Amino acid sequence: MRRGILFTPDQLEEIRNKVSALKTTDELSMLVYLILSTDLKMKDLLGWFNKNPLKRREYLNNANLDLLEDYESLPLLFPKTHHAYLVQWKRACKDWIGVEGATFEMLKRKPKPMKEVAVNIENC
């Protein structure tokens, strides 16, 4: 398990470049692009955002995001399970940036501040 490990800024930039180029033709790239571009988690993206076109459109309009103009009315954006996307993601990360065992949690944009980490260690 890679709990707490994040991608480096260079790795994130490489991932951003790849998914930006592929987001219109590749399902996984669109999913990762949405993780990086919004504050939605995988649970949300594969849940209400995926299954409810009205809520999806409302969210994108409120967030002023024109990410999915062509896909707004589709009944289901991501037909696969979380596990299927995770397997695909691990393979893509190995090919793109040479990282094995990657998770979606590694895409978090901000690591915990050191003060917060120190407090957690003291409480153990």
In total, the number of strands is 0
Gap between N and C termini, in Å? 20 Å
- Helix and strand element order: HHHHHHH
Judged by helices, strands and strand pairing, the structural class is mainly alpha
Treating each run of at least 4 consecutive H or I residues as one helix, how many helices? 7
What is the helical fraction, as a range of percent?
Answer: 55-70%
Q: How many domains is the backbone divided into? A: 1
Largest sheet: none
Task: List segments where confidence is low: pLDDT < 50 over at least 5 consecutive residues.
Answer: 114-123
**Gyration radius from CA atoms, angstroms:** 16 Å
Strand coverage percent: under 5%
pLDDT averaged over residues: 82
Shape: globular
Report on this model:
With 124 residues, this protein is an all-alpha fold. It has one domain. The protein is 56% helix and 0% strand. The protein contains seven helices and no strands. It has helices spanning 9-22, 27-37, 42-46, 48-51, 53-62, 82-97, 114-123. The longest helix has 16 residues, at 82-97. The chain is globular. The two termini are 20 Å apart.
Give me some keywords for this one.
124 residues, mainly alpha, 7 helices, 0% strand, globular, disordered C terminus
